[in-house]
Amino acid sequence: MSRSFSGYLLIEDLFDNFPDTFKPLYNEAQSLFNPTVRIVSDDCHTLLGKRVDLDFTLIGRTELSTDKVLDRDSISTMLAAGTYKVSIRTPSHCTATGGICRKCYLATTSGTGSASIGDMKPLKSEVISGFYSFNITRDDLSVIIPLSVDDVDRVEFYYNDDLYAKYTVNTTDEDQISITFERTFRAPLRGEAEDFVILLEGLDEIPLELEKNSVTGDGDEISVRAYRNSTSPFVTYLAKTYAGSLLGASPVDSSDLPIRLGLIKERISAPKLAALVDYLEPYSDYIPATYMSYIDSIKDPLERELYVLALYAVYCDVGE
Fold first, then answer.
1. Rounded distance between C-alpha atoms, residue 185 and residue 187, angstroms
2. Would you say 312 and 283 are in contact if contact means Cβ atoms under 8 Å apart?
3. If you write DSSP's letter for every residue of 43-111 in order, what string do you get?
4. DSSP code for 217
5. What's the angle, vertex CA 288, arms to CA 12 and CA 13, rounded to 5?
6. Per-residue pLDDT for the chain (320 aa), expressed as one digit of tens each?
7. Which residues fall within 8 angstroms of residue 1, CB to CB, at 6 or more apart?
């Protein structure tokens, strides 16, 4: 198969829908795509960051050069001054040894929870599936967000540019969807609460409690940023390798890996790789012999693991 963008499209969601027919491989895939990392220091003082377009979707992110959280006013000022690119902190650019620092972790999660040195924190690769901003009044304390449950895994709510709360959408099967609520420490309730209702297509009402006295009717603004989990950074990494070329994939730009590459590779031991290859043996009759024989020549541990997982994802259903 020749390497092409269409080849990439064929495997683009390969890992997003990873089969669970064989639990050891499924569990390993989930561990790789959703790593848990230790907070090892307060601040790594990194000089590295992700260069992105400057717009209001960056509200709540930490600017690298100033170490300040971006809000609507600072973004408007920078845009007016002709600044259209900015570098932000991300865990994949953290330079802490043996894990990530607290500041790089909170810079990505926007402060949705506490983080102390020694804590083990889960991180996922995410893409923004929607960003909405609107004013609210006492006469209209609800809004419909045009997103379906398939588009949303996590939602952040900003109230007047302060991260106010986070909801996580948990889908166990087609008939069971639950919402997990987590209020951020940045916005504690001090007075009587008043429900502001968010409506997502396919879901029941999501109440967002706002402090009753704070809803003045003028100038109060809610920003909603929705995220969808995505394994595309891992697919892109594989597509850049020779193993990816065997699958016909041409690499495209993608979001960052959830943590820096070195930390991911440190987790992949030689015994683990050998076990993963052994797991493929029952399916060897269905996998082309040239694909199987190439595994032993792969030196990069992440390339090798992703290649094995890709072969399993493509061919396991044939063998079941």
1. 6
2. yes
3. -------EEEE-SGGGTTPBBTTT--B--HHHHHHHHHTT--EEEE--GGG---TTSEEHHHHHHHHTT
4. S
5. 10
6. 444 444 445 566 778 888 888 888 899 999 999 898 999 999 999 998 889 899 888 888 889 989 888 888 899 999 999 999 999 998 889 999 999 998 888 887 544 557 889 889 888 888 777 787 776 655 555 556 666 666 777 777 777 666 666 666 665 555 444 445 444 434 433 334 444 444 444 444 444 444 444 444 455 677 778 888 888 888 888 888 888 777 766 666 667 888 889 999 999 999 999 999 998 888 888 888 888 889 989 999 999 999 999 888 888 755 45
7. 7, 246, 247, 248
Find all residues with CB under 8 Å of 21, minimum gap 6, and list them.
Answer: 316, 317, 320
Provide the token pair at 278. Answer: 């052994």
What is d(CA 284, CA 23) in angstroms, rounded to the nearest whole number? 18
Burial of 17 (0-12, 13-18, 19+ CB in 10 A): exposed
CA distances from 263 to 28, 102, 242 (A): 16, 16, 22
pTM to 2 decimal places: 0.76
5: which 2 tokens? 């963008």
